[in-house]
Design goal:
Blueprint (H helix, E strand, L loop, with lengths): L1 E6 L7 E4 L10 H7 L3 E7 L11 H10 L3 E3 L9
Antiparallel strand pairs: 1-2, 1-3, 2-4
Length: 81
C-alpha cells in the first residue's frame, strides 16, 4: 500500500499518514483545526514488515483501513521517578 505522510504546520513532531495523496476528507474538522495546514513530507510503500521509526506498520495499516488516516504524535519526554 502506498502511504502519504504530512507534517503538521502547528504541532512539532506530529505527522498524518494517508492512503490517498491530498485526500483529507476522512479527517475530523477538530483534528484539522489542531493539526493546521498539512505539509507533504514523504511517500513510501507500507507493508506489515516495514520498519518505521516510531510506529508499528501493521497498526498504521489498520488505522488507514478503518479510519482512513493515522496520526503520529510526538513521544512524551519521560523522566525517571
Amino acid at each position: 500500500m502506498t502511504c502519504y505522510v504530512y507534517r503538521s504546520s502547528r504541532k512539532q513532531d506530529t505527522y498524518l499518514y494517508l492512503p490517498v495523496k491530498d485526500d483529507f476528507s476522512s479527517l475530523p474538522d477538530a483534528l484539522m483545526n489542531v493539526f493546521g495546514a498539512p505539509v507533504f513530507a514523504l511517500e513510501f510503500e507500507l507493508t506489515p514488515q516495514r520498519r518505521l521509526a516510531r510506529e508499528d506498520a501493521a497498526q498504521v495499516m489498520e488505522n488507514l483501513r478503518i479510519r482512513g488516516f493515522h496520526l503520529q504524535m510526538p513521544v512524551e519526554n519521560q523522566t525517571p521517578a
